[in-house]
Amino acid sequence: MTASDPVVIVGVGLTPVGEHWQTSLRSLGLQALEGARREAPGLQPGAIYIANMLAPALSGQAHLGALLADFAGLRGIEAVTVEAAGASGGLALRQAFLAVTAGAHDVALVVGLEKITDHIGSGLAAAMMASGDSDYEAAHGLTPPALAALRMRRYLHEGHAPQDALLGFSRAAHAHAVSNPYAMYRKAIRDEDYRRAPMVSEPVNLYDAAPLADGAAALLVARASVLTGAHPPPVRIRGQGVATSPVALHEGRDPLDLPAARLSAERAYAEAAVGPADIHVFEPHDSFTIYAALAVEAAGFAARGEGWRLAAEDRIGPKGTLPMLTFGGSKARGDTGGATGVYQIAEVVLQLQGRADGTQVPGARLGMAQCLGGSGGTAVTTILEAG
């Protein structure tokens, strides 16, 4: 692709995040897919890339690409399922971007979908921990909340931060979700709500952990030159970076460093020819508040140990110095596993199109989403530019 014919996102489709007990996995995916296609009805996708983490374990369903293509009336289309835990959505968009850039397809669909709430208890915990190191973490009883707790305890200790240092991320997420019709929890919280919340895995409390939920999100990706008819303003994919690091926490050199997140951000900045100071809105991975704090540091928005101050000082609202979690993040929108990254990217697209309603960032032209797999083993950073 050339600068005059960039790869753009022209359609977004979202389902409300929540407990969709009466809706099948394929039906959720179809709702999001059709929503994205309605925004640019003249475009016929040549491929579909599915982001999913848990369907084989929780829904007893693999082969999602062909399943959804058939259900959507797209028989014969190229269809691939992409799995990279919580980074699946970002990596699915990466595959679509590469396919369109290479000229293999003019138009592609990205669909993230997940059904989680049909299960509770040990089976769900085991499925979620499959994103970690099965032999050396899951086998010894570690869970995602426990891994987050280990990092959070070290973060508070090393930075001499107060026990409620990460409160601001949760407070901002819930405040921003109030105007998001797709969010699971559309209610603001008070500081005392956070401080009184029960512990999940000390020091991680209930408001530090995102609720697991069902949902689907879709993006319609195309070469700008093939756009026809009326559609929302296209948003250019200006830069992407993908990186990996050890899956197991104990294999890393520093529990407060997210090397994959840092590397993926650096690669995205280099490709887009921009830096942290140029970004107008940032959607980080916040399955736990500690990851939001570490992400802003890894992406260069704050020095080591200082990420929490952005939220504590109310600098992450729509008119702040680094607007983030502007649709509620996973904390208030809901954590949809492998679909999360597609929601994040879709939310940045809506910001850049001026369609963010109550949390619109004034003058937003460059946005960034960063998806993390597991506790940071995979990271995908995407930089988007308003058309």
Supply the CATH class of one domain.
Alpha Beta
Order of strands in the sheet with most strands: 3-2-4-7-1-8-11-10-9
Globular, elongated, flat, extended or rod-shaped: what is the shape?
A: globular
Order of helices and strands: EHEHHEHEHHHHEEEEHEHHHHEE
Calculate Rg over CA atoms.
19 Å
Total of DSSP H or I helical runs spanning 4+ residues: 13
Beta-strand percentage range:
15-25%
Looking at this structure, what is the CATH superfamily of one domain?
A: Thiolase/Chalcone synthase
Number of strands: 11
Distance between the termini: 16 Å
The main pleated sheet reads as: 9 strands, mixed
The secondary structure category is: alpha/beta
Q: What is the helix content?
A: 25-40%
CATH-assigned fold name of one domain: Peroxisomal Thiolase, Chain A, domain 1
How does this structure look, described?
The protein has 387 residues and is α/β, with parallel strands linked by helices. It has a domain at 7-119 and 212-226: 3-Layer(aba) Sandwich (Peroxisomal Thiolase, Chain A, domain 1), CATH 3.40.47.10. 33% of the residues lie in helices and 18% in strands. It has helices spanning 25-38, 55-59, 64-71, 88-101, 122-129, 144-158, 167-177, 191-196, 259-272, 289-298, 307-312, 329-333, 340-352; strands spanning 7-14, 47-51, 78-82, 107-114, 199-201, 204-205, 215-223, 235-244, 281-283, 366-373, 378-386. The chain is globular and about 55 Å long. The relative contact order is 0.20. The mean pLDDT is 96.
